[in-house]
From TrEMBL:
Belongs to the zinc-containing alcohol dehydrogenase family. Residues 225-341 form the Alcohol dehydrogenase-like C-terminal domain. It is an enzyme of class 1 (oxidoreductase). CDD domains: MDR_TM0436_like. The lineage of its organism: Bacteria, Bacillati, Actinomycetota, Actinomycetes, Pseudonocardiales. It comes from Pseudonocardia parietis. Its EC number is 1.1.1.1. SUPFAM superfamilies: GroES-like, NAD(P)-binding Rossmann-fold domains. Residues 33-91, 113-178 form the Alcohol dehydrogenase-like N-terminal domain. Keywords: Metal-binding, NAD, Oxidoreductase, Zinc. Gene3D superfamilies: Medium-chain alcohol dehydrogenases, catalytic domain, NAD(P)-binding Rossmann-like Domain. InterPro entries: ADH-like_C, ADH-like_N, ADH_phosphonate_catab-assoc, GroES-like_sf, NAD(P)-bd_dom_sf. This is alcohol dehydrogenase.
């Protein structure tokens, strides 16, 4: 029988228009085989969290929201002898907290997950062996578990970031975060930064699959994802133009490395167009902006919206590529942490996050996140 050593607290979401309710729950003394128990040090309110609470996207009710966070490992489960490792597990050394003689969970780089590790984790856990996982699409696993998007199981409720603790399932990608990276900067890596890494990965231009000097990149939307994309593309040496209807956002994009920031970009002038706002007119702008051989990467349209017409002749004659990106693979989370660790002092990422708010004030944090002119993220410190 499982024993408990302490309690955890989570914020229960009961649907659109309902306030968050704090609930105490027993904290397992030891995670199940393959699991990792993490203390959440800081979480951020993502745009998709706002869409969920406003009823713009479907999500299980009740539930525990939150999927951008950073925390410390407090306990590690073992992998059963003879078990098949998936995701963050591997046959090999025993991690701290694992059963004697049994292999434990591992980070993306192969290092064992240890008690005390400061980590971020993937937005979802994947099985590792279904058809999609075998095709290299673990983010679309047929048995996907998605943090902050699962129905509430009161016996096992710690599945979201708006809680004092989170239990990571087998198949969750984890990356150690250097202590020099502030919590406010690290937490968005789990969603925003890793998603942008996947977006840039999809913008293949040369044999090496990377942008570089001489490439012209358009980024539509200068919110959290947009300015992160601006910074990543600028770091690669590309000439980056940000397009956004709001003057304050355009000014922010310039501070993140944009060569120019405009309301309406030039048509037919870009090698790559990255759509990160989700607005239908911005999707149209990206498609119209492509030069011959250009690639449009669409990642902002994660909620239902109006259809956008496609001119097939222009696509064919222009040798255009149109790619959709949703979530990300484990390598993108590793790339996100590497980018933030290297560049957080160069670009003002900390100013993108307001707060922090205590978990007791989660409703206020959500209200602040949706306020005009607010920082793209609000932080919650459980």
């Amino acid at each position: 029988m499982t024993t408990t050593v302490a309690t955890a607290r989570y914020a229960r979401w009961d649907g659109t228009g309902e306030p968050f309710r704090l609930v105490d729950t027993a904290l397992p003394a030891r995670p199940a085989p393959g699991e990792v128990l993490v203390r959440v040090d800081l979480a951020t309110v993502c745009g998709s969290d706002l869409h969920t609470t406003r009823g713009h996207r479907s999500s299980p009710v009740p539930g525990v929201l939150g999927h951008e966070q950073v925390g410390r490992v407090v306990a590690v489960g073992s992998t059963p002898v003879g078990g098949t490792p998936v995701g963050n597990t591997a046959v090999g050394a025993t991690a701290a907290g694992a059963a004697p003689g049994g292999p434990g969970p591992r980070h993306i780089d192969g290092a064992p997950v240890l008690v005390g590790d400061r980590i971020v984790w993937s937005v979802a856990a994947s099985c590792g062996h279904c058809r999609r996982c075998r095709r290299g699409l673990p983010q679309k696993c047929t048995d996907l578990l998605k943090y902050g998007h699962e129905p509430l199981d009161e016996a096992h409720p710690l599945t979201g970031g708006f809680a004092t603790h989170c239990v990571l399932a087998p198949g969750t990608a984890t990356v150690v975060v250097p202590d020099a990276v502030p919590d406010l900067v690290a937490a968005p890596a789990s969603c925003a930064t890793a998603t942008v890494a996947a977006v840039l990965d999809a913008a293949v231009l040369d044999a090496a699959g990377r942008l570089g000097p001489g490439d012209r990149v358009l980024v539509t939307g200068a919110g959290m994802l947009g300015v992160t994309a601006v910074a990543m593309a600028a770091r690669m040496g590309a000439e980056v133009v940000a397009a956004d209807p709001h003057a304050d956002r355009r000014e922010r994009a310039l501070r993140f490395g944009a060569t120019a920031a405009v309301e309406v970009p030039d048509a037919g002038a870009f090698d790559v167009a990255l759509e990160l706002s989700g607005a239908a007119p911005a999707v149209r702008t990206c498609l119209d902006s492509l030069d011959v051989g250009g690639t449009a990467v669409l990642a902002g349209s994660v909620s239902p919206g109006p259809a956008v017409a496609l001119d097939p002749e222009r696509t064919v004659r222009g040798l255009h590529t149109i790619v959709g990106v949703h979530n990300y693979a484990p390598r993108h989370l590793a790339a996100a942490v590497e980018f933030l660790a290297t560049e957080h002092a160069r670009f003002p990422f900390a100013e993108l996050v307001g707060g922090p708010w205590p978990l007791e004030d989660l409703d206020a944090a959500f209200a602040a996140a949706g306020a005009p002119g607010a920082a793209p993220r609000q932080a919650v410190r459980p």
